[in-house]
Structures
1.
Amino acid sequence: MKRLLIVEDDPGLQSQMRWCFSDQIEVSVAADRDSALAALRRMEPQVITLDLGLPPDAGGASEGFALLEEILRLAPMTKVIVVTGREDKENAVKAIGMGASDFYQKPLDADILTFVVNRAFRLAELEQENRELIGQTNGASIKGIVAASPEMMEICRTIEKVAPTDVTTLITGETGTGKELLARALHDLSHRTDQPFAAINCAAIPENLLESELFGFEKGSFTGATQAKKGKIESANGGTLFLDEIGDMPMALQAKLLRFLQERVVDRVGSVKPVPVDVRVVCATHRNVQELITQGEFREDLYYRISEITLDVPALRERDGDALVIAQSLLKSLGKQLDRQNLSFSEDAVQAITSYAWPGNVREMINKVKRAIIMADGKRVSAGDLQLSTGEGEPVNQLNLRQVREQAEKQAIRQALHCTSFNMSQASRLLGVTRPTLYNLTDKYRIETSAESPAS
Ligand SMILES: Nc1ncnc2c1ncn2[C@@H]1O[C@H](COP(=O)(O)OP(=O)(O)OP(=O)(O)O)[C@@H](O)[C@H]1O
C-alpha cells in the first residue's frame, strides 16, 4: 500500500491536499514536527510532502529543515518533497542539497502536486526493488572481499563497473574499512592487472621526501642523489597508482600532482625533461575532504580531478551482517596461519561481535581475532578471548519497534545458526520455533543457512 504523509500547518491546505489523492493511497496529515515524527514512526510512509514553514517558525523555514534532517536520519529511504512559497527558490535548493528528493511551490495546483507525488512513489518503488535484487545476490563476488551487507554488495558492484574504465577514483571511509583492499580490487579487475600496482602513503612519508618518492629525481639534484631514481608514479607506468591518505598531502605537492593529472607527464626533481606516464590513479582518505577544502588545506581543483567517481565505504558497524561473516572468515584464515584450525566462536562471542561498534573496523577485528586464536582454551573462542564485553547493544536511532524487533530477530537467528554450525533442527530448537518457521525467517531476512562464507 502506498502511504503518504502530508506535513502542513494550514487546515485549509491540509484538506485540499488530501483531496488530491485517490483511495489507492493511505494519507495522513501532521501539522507540526512532533506529530509528523510520530506519524513517520507509526505508518512508515514512502513519501512525505513537507511544508518548510511550520510552527513555531511558520514564517521561516528553520523548523521545516530540522524536521527534514530528522526524517532522513530515521528513515533515509523516504522520499521527501518540500513545499515552499513561490519566491522561496533558495530554500528549495537547500532542501534538495540536504537530501529532499523534490520540491513543489505553492499555490496548490492539484495536477502538478499529484504528478510530483506519484513520481516520488515510483522512485521509492524502484529503489525498493533494486534493494531487493541486491539482497538476493549472495555475497560479494570480488576475490578477497568478505561481505554480506547490501551496502558492501553495492560497493562491489560499483567496483566491477568502474574497474574496466580509467576514471580517477576516490575512496573515502574510516580507518580499516578496506579502502586499500578496494583499490587493489579496482586494479585486479582492470585491463591493467598484469602491470604494476604502486601504493604510497602520503601521511607516512616526511614532506621533504614525498616529492622525490612520488616524482623521482635526477642524479645530483640534491646532496646524496648519487644516481637518478624513478618515483612511484613512473614505477606504476602501465598500471595503477594508489595514493593513500591523499588528504594529508602538503599543498605545494598538491599543485604538482594536479599538473601531473592534467598533463600526464612527470617532472623528476632536478630534471627539465618531462617523462610521459600512463597510470590509472586511485586515491583514498579517512579525512573529510570538503572540510579540508574549507580550511584551505586541500585544493578544490585537485579534489574535482581525483573524484571523478567517489566510493564512500561505510564503517563496519553500519553494515548489516558483515561483522560476523568477516570474523568467521578471519577465524578460518588466521587459524590456519597460526596452526589452530577448527576453532569456532562461542555464543557470547557471536553476540559480542555483532553488538560491538568496531571503531577500528576490520583492522581492529584482525587484531582481536588473532589474539583470541592464541588465547582460546580448547576449540571455542569466547568474548573474553576477543577482549569484548557481552553487554547488549543499545537500540539507538531505530525507527520504531518493528525495526528493533527485526534487528533482534536477525541477530538471534545468526547467533543460533553459528552456535549450531548451521544445523537447522538444532538452531530452531534453540530459538523455540519450528524448522519451517526458521526457514521462513532466514528467507525473509536473507540470512545464509550454510557455513560457506558468502564471499571470499
Ligand atoms: N571486507 C573485507 N573482507 C576481508 N578483509 C578485509 C575487508 N575489509 C578490510 N579487510 C582487511 O582489513 C585490513 C585493513 O584494510 P585496508 O588496509 O584496506 O583498510 P583501509 O581503509 O585502507 O585502512 P587505512 O585507512 O587505515 O589505511 C586489511 O588487512 C584488509 O585485507
2.
Amino acid sequence: MTERTATETTTAAATSASELRVAVLGARGRMGSEAAQAVRRADGLQLVAELDHEDSLEVLVAADAQVVIDFTVPSVTEHNVRFAVEHGIHCVVGTTGWDHEALDRTRALLARHPGVGVLIAPNFSIGAVLAMRFSAQAARFFESVEIVELHHPDKVDAPSGTAARTAALVGEARRAAGVGPSPDATEQDPDGARGALVDDVRVHSVRLRGLVAHQETLLGSLGEQLTIRHDSFDRVSFMSGVVLGVRQVVSHPGLTHGLDDYLDLGL
Ligand SMILES: NC(=O)C1=CN([C@@H]2O[C@H](COP(=O)(O)OP(=O)(O)OC[C@H]3O[C@@H](n4cnc5c(N)ncnc54)[C@H](OP(=O)(O)O)[C@@H]3O)[C@@H](O)[C@H]2O)C=CC1
Ligand SMILES: O=C(O)C1=N[C@H](C(=O)O)C[C@H](O)C1
C-alpha cells in the first residue's frame, strides 16, 4: 500500500481503541489477501495496514500496529519479525523457511524483548495441525514412514513447511521410542527419486496445477498400511487459525512454534 493509504487507515483506526490493531505483510499475495479479508471480518480486530514488496516496514510503526501477520517469502520473513519485535509488535507468521538456527535467533531476540509474542505456524488449518500430531503419535508403531506433500505449482519452496515439521515430529517420536530409520535397500538413486531426507524421514514433493495444499503420511509394517491424509481445498481453511493466532499471540510472550500450543486438542 502507499504511504498515503497507510495514513488513512491509521486515522480511521484511531476511532476504535478497544480493537486489536492488525497489519498484514505480503498483503497482495494468495495468503496475505485472504488474511486481510479475514481480519476485516473478525470481531475485535482492525486492519490498520496492508504491506507488500515495495512498502517500508516503518508503515507498521506509523499505523501503530499491535500485531503483524506475515505471509511473505522465506528470504525476508525473519527480517520482518526482527523489525516487528524490536518495535514491540507481536507477530503471527505463516511464511515457511524457519530452520533451527532462525528459530534460535528469534528466541534470543525475544529474550531481550519480554512481553512480545511471536507465533510461527507451519500450517494454520486445524486438520493439518491434527494430521501432524497423529503422524507423530503413530510413528513409533510402524517400521516405515514416508511423507508425500502435494501443492500448487506456484509454491516457491520444497519440501513444504508442514512436511518438514511433520518429518521433524515423526523423527523425534521415533528416536524417543528407540525406533530406527525406515528400512530402505536403495543403493543407486542418481536423480533423487527417493525424495529428500528430513530428520531421517523421506519427503516427496508433488507440484500439480489444480492443487492447493495436501499431505499424506504413509506408515507401513508387515501386512498393513496406515495413511494420514489432509487436504486444504481452499485457503479459507487457514483463516480461523490465523484469526485465533492473532487473538492469542498478545497473551503468549516469547516464541510459540506451531498452533498446537494455543489449542486444547485433548491429545
Ligand atoms: N502457515 C500456513 O498455514 C500457510 C503458509 N503458507 C506460506 O505462506 C507464504 C506465502 O504464500 P503465498 O501467499 O502462497 O505466496 P504469494 O507469492 O502469493 O505471496 C507472497 C507475497 O509476499 C510479497 N512479498 C515478497 N517479499 C516481500 C517483502 N519483503 N515484504 C512484503 N511482502 C513481500 C510478494 O510480493 P511480490 O509478488 O511482489 O514479490 C507476494 O505478494 C509461503 O511461505 C507459504 O508456504 C501458505 C499457506 C498456508
Ligand atoms: O505454500 C503453500 O501453499 C502452503 N504452504 C505451507 C507449507 O509450506 O507447509 C502450508 C500449506 O501447506 C500451504
3.
Amino acid sequence: MLVIGIAGGTGCGKTTVVNQLLKELPEGEVGILSQDSYYKDTSHLSFDERVKINFDHPRSIDFDLIEEHLTELKKGNAIDQPVYSFVKHNRTGDTIHTLPRKVMIVEGILVLSNPELRKMFDIKIFVHADSDERLIRRLRRDITERGRDLDEVLNRYKTTLKPMHSQFIEPMKEYADIIIPNNHYNTVAIDIVKTIINDKL
Ligand SMILES: Nc1ncnc2c1ncn2[C@@H]1O[C@H](COP(=O)(O)OP(=O)(O)O)[C@@H](O)[C@H]1O
Ligand SMILES: O=c1ccn([C@@H]2O[C@H](COP(=O)(O)O)[C@@H](O)[C@H]2O)c(=O)[nH]1
C-alpha cells in the first residue's frame, strides 16, 4: 500500500486536489481518510461549549484512532471511519465503511503535525495558497455549506485559525516532499502527482 499525506491550511484546496486525483485515477484503487472524520467525540459537551473548542489545535484530533485505522488498512482490514458534522461540531454516530486500497490518501490541516502519523506516509504533500485567498474561500464555504455567518468566521480566523496556522501548519512545509502552489487551479501539479501514483499502482 502507498500512503500519501496531504496537508495545508484551511481553504488551500486539499479536498479539491484529492477529488481531482480520485476522478483521474482508476476506480477502486484509491481510498481516503479525512482528518475531519477524526475530530474527538464531543457528545459530553453542550453545543455552546463545543463552539468554543479550538478546532485548529492538534489536541482536537484523535490521532491515535487515525493511526489505528491506517495500521488496520495496511494489514488489509476494513475500518469504519466516523462521520463528522461541522454544523453540530460533533460526530454524527454514523460511519463510512472504508476498504483498504492500493493507495490511501490521508488528508487534513494537521496530518503532517503528528510525528507518528507522519512516519506512516510514503509521500508527504503540502498544498499552499496565500492566507488572503484561503480566508476568502473559507468565508464563502463556511457561510454557504457550514451554517456560519461573517462575524463568526472572521472572529474564529483572528483568534484561532491564523495563530494555529503559524504554529502548527505552515512549519510542516519543512517535511513535505512536494509543495503544490494552489492560488489558482494547478492542473500541472495534479498531473505530476497522478503520474507518481500511477507509477506505483
Ligand atoms: N485553486 C482554487 N481556486 C479557487 N477556488 C478553489 C481552489 N481550490 C479550491 N477552491 C475552492 O475553495 C474552497 C475550499 O476548498 P477545499 O478543497 O474545501 O479546501 P480545504 O479542503 O483545503 O479546506 C472550495 O469552495 C473550493 O471549491
Ligand atoms: O466542528 C468543527 C470542526 C472543524 N472546523 C474547522 O474546519 C477546518 C478544517 O477543515 P478544512 O476542510 O481543512 O478547512 C478547521 O480550520 C476548523 O476551524 C469547524 O469549523 N468546526
